[in-house]
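Reopening this one. Same input as before:
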Amino acid sequence: PNMLSFPIIMKPLKKFIFSLAFTAILGLLNTPLSFCASRVELPSYLVHKFEADRLLKTGALDQAAAEYEKSIALNPELNSSYFNLAIAYYSAGKMEKAARTLEQLLKLDPSDAEAEYNLACLQLYLQDISASRKHFTNAKNLCPSDSELLPLIEKGMGFVEDLHKTQPATQEVILTLLHQGLPSLNLSGSN
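Same output, byte for byte:
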């Protein structure tokens, strides 16, 4: 019998961890030092983004989303705000909003394999098998052959292909189980 294997939904988010490190560095720049006469003023879109990063890390998901939205309104070209906003929505169980946010990110950066992968997983969660297949394929085409993301993409693609071969009633049961058993994101960056 052909056993289906579930893809890992939303890989650990290195972009979020990098963003937190960047926030910490810039936080130091905003701290007056004895040899500095004045503070470095950050653009307001970064102030909102860094506050959102802090809130996301503490689990204040709605507040984090609001701050990311402010950051995006002030600078719609800041890709990491979209990515982290999608994380906030995902973590709050707002899958449709998370998917739309990743779609916006992909309009800005169509070469983002990680966003394609995460969107493929969200589309699977939302029970749109054809959209999931499309985004897994896009992710694979964008992903370098030595990337740690590639095995996850291939696993997801295999799952979608196996799922596509099953009867519609079986697909519905499997997708319902996937929906109910969605694992939490690893926001700590530890593997």
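So the earlier flakiness isn't reproducible anymore. For the record, The chain has a mean pLDDT of 79.
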